[in-house]
Each structure stands twice: as C-alpha cells, then as structure tokens.
C-alpha cells in the first residue's frame, strides 16, 4: 500500500510556507512565498494555491496524489466550517478559506490556528508523542500555546483554548497588544529578552551585548541576549533570570489547570536548549509543581516547520474521521 501524503500550509503574516508531509511528520518537497496581505485575500489565496501546486510539482506528483491539505492560520478559526473568523495580521474576517483553497486544489482542506497546528505536530509525531496530556508552547514574537487533553486538541467553546499568552501575569503591568495589561506574552515572548538587551546597549556600552550588536540597539535579538547570558554577561544574565522566572510562573499556572504529562517548548527562544530548560525546571519545582506529578519539560522536535507538519497531520486526522 502506498503511504498517504498530505499538504501542510503555514500561513503567516509575512510568509506562506507549504510542504508535502508523510504520516510520520517527514517533509518531502517544500516551498515558500511572501504573504503580502495588503494585496487582499483573493490574491493571497490564489498565491497559496499556486505554491501548493508548485510544491507537488517539485515532488513529481499532482493534487490527485494528495489525500488532504491543512492550513495553520495566525488567528481564530472555526475548524468545523473551515472559516477564518478573525486574523488580525492578515486583516481577514469570516473568510471561508477551506472552501476556496479546496476548490483550487480539488482535495479536502482542514483549518486550524497556528498554535494548535504546532501542538498537533508535537503530539502526533514530535516531542509530546505518547502523551495523552500535553502543553505545547511556542516562544516567538508572541507566546502561542496548544493544549492536548485526553489525546485530543483542546479547542474550547470559542476556539480560544490555550491562549496562554494573554493570561494575566502581573495585574496593571505592561500594556499588551490585546489592550490588557500584564499579559504573559509581555514577559515571555522574544521581545521580553530583546527589550532589556536594547536598553543594555545604551546603559552598558562596554558590555558584551553592545559589543555583539555593534553598538546598535536595533540589532539586538532575543537570541543575542541568550548567547550573552550563556557567556556570563551580567546584564544579559539579569534579563535571562527575569525571563525564566516569569515563564516558569506562567507555565506553572497553566500546568495547575491542565496537569500535562509533558510541556514542550518551541520557537526561537527554545534554541537556547538546556540553558533555558534547566532554570525553567528548577523554578517550576520551586513553585511546588515538583515532586510527584511534575511534567517533563522538553524541547520541541519541529521548530520553524511545526506549522507545516502540524497543519498536514491535522488534515490527515480530519480526513481519517470523515473517511
Ligand atoms: Zn494580551
């Protein structure tokens, strides 16, 4: 019997990525195009379809060889109707994306939000495989999270389950893009590391951060601050310590609600590996999630490709249920 193949699409605010994925999460051919959402949704969807067909073409197959396609969307979706309800980065409201793309590709199309796609990738084929209950967190420009409960993605009544990034960590704290104050995202996204790093360039011009950034604050990234912390730079270490404490607090709060067997950490900041995970484990232990029932804290298997793989595997799952 031939291995079924699925198309996975990661629709981001800046790029659309597509890949051909097998049931184990391996990616065959893949491709990428700029999203340019200001062109309007019609053009974006047409481009997405062309990218998909291009990706198939490079693998030497056609849409008829694909069992289903899935799209991970940066926003709120109705996974049952395949409608994008609201995607602020794209300016989309009530777009029937599954129907429109399905027409162009002549195969069933499933939709979910990008955080759920990442969670599906890790749950089905990655670091959370074998766990019935898991929390998959992506630390990037924002803080995304997906929850696996009793072996299924938890979506909630309005598709808003797992909105960990907007849990209030510090009432009255920093103003978030969602208009609330003190959201976890303000303390645990990549910006929470880059911000203090940029300040350090000015306040500590002889420090390692300023040196590696060439004295230019706009060059400071979360990854640069992590690297400087690893090398023992005091300003970077202070930022890192604050960051891991705040993240540990947010994860502990989440763990108390869902009791995950494992917490999977992905995204740009997770590239620091054990340098991030070790203090997280220690600080979560100190918050008394330790001992019996403590979740394992591990790094994601799929980082930049979690969206592609997850969208494809969700499509496989949806096709399996209908078929
Ligand atoms: Zn918020």
**Beta-strand share of residues:** 15-25%
List bound small molecules.
zinc ion
CATH domain class of the largest domain: Alpha Beta
Number of helices: 10
The rounded Rg comes to 20 Å
Order of adjacent strands in the largest pleated sheet = 3-2-1-4-8
What are the low-pLDDT stretches, counting only 5+ consecutive residues below 50?
Answer: none
CATH homologous superfamily annotation of the largest domain: ATPase, nucleotide binding domain
| Sheet with the most strands, sense and barrel status | 5 strands, mixed
Class derived from helix and strand content: alpha/beta
Mean pLDDT figure: 94
**Proportion in helices:** 25-40%
CATH topology of the largest domain: Nucleotidyltransferase, domain 5
Describe this structure as you would to a colleague:
It contains ten helices and 13 strands. It has 323 residues and is α/β, with parallel strands linked by helices. α1 (41-58) crosses α2, α5 (191-203) crosses α7 and α8 packs across α9. The chain binds zinc ion (ZN).
Layout of helices and strands, plus pairs?
Layout (H helix, E strand, L loop, with lengths): L4 E7 L3 E7 L5 E8 L6 H18 L7 E8 L2 E3 L4 E5 L4 E4 L1 H9 L3 E5 H12 L8 E6 L3 E7 L2 E2 L31 H4 L2 H13 L4 H5 L9 H9 L3 H25 L3 E5 L7 H16 L6 E4 L6 H17 L1
Helix pairs in contact: 1-2, 3-10, 5-7, 5-8, 7-8, 8-9
The site of zinc ion (ZN) has 6 residues, from loops.
Summarize this structure briefly.
By secondary structure, the chain is an alpha/beta fold. 40% of the residues lie in helices and 22% in strands. It folds into two domains: 135 residues, 2-Layer Sandwich (Nucleotidyltransferase, domain 5); 170 residues, 2-Layer Sandwich (Nucleotidyltransferase, domain 5).
């Amino acid at each position: 019997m031939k291995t079924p193949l699925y198309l996975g699409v990661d629709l981001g605010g800046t790029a659309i990525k597509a890949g051909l994925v097998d049931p184990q999460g391996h990616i065959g051919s893949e491709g990428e195009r700029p999203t340019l959402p200001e062109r309007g949704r019609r053009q974006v969807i047409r481009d997405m379809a062309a990218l998909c067909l291009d990706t198939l073409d490079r693998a030497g197959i056609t849409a008829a060889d694909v069992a289903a396609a899935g799209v991970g969307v940066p926003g709120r979706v109705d996974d049952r109707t395949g409608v994008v309800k609201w995607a602020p980065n794209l300016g989309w409201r009530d777009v029937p994306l599954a129907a429109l793309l399905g027409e162009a590709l002549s195969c069933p199309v499933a939709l979910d939000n990008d955080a759920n796609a990442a969670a599906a990738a890790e749950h089905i084929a990655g670091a959370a495989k074998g766990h019935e209950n898991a929390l998959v967190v992506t630390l990037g420009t924002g803080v995304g999270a997906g929850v696996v409960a009793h072996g299924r993605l938890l979506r909630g009544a309005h598709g808003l389950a797992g909105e960990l990034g907007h849990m209030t960590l510090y009432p009255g704290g920093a103003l978030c893009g969602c208009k609330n104050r003190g959201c976890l995202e303000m303390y645990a996204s990549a910006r929470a590391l880059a911000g203090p790093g940029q300040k350090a360039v000015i306040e500590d011009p002889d420090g390692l951060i300023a040196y590696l950034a060439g004295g230019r604050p706009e060059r400071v990234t979360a990854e640069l601050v992590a690297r400087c912390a690893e090398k023992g730079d005091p300003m970077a270490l202070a930022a890192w310590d604050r960051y891991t404490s705040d993240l540990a607090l947010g994860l502990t709060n989440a763990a108390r609600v869902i009791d995950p067997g494992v917490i999977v950490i992905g995204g740009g900041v997770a590239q620091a590996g054990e340098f991030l995970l070790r203090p997280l484990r220690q600080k979560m232990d100190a918050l008394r999630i330790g001992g019996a029932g403590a979740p394992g804290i591990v790094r994601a298997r799929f980082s930049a490709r979690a969206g592609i793989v997850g969208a494809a595997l969700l499509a496989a799952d949806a096709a399996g249920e209908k078929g």
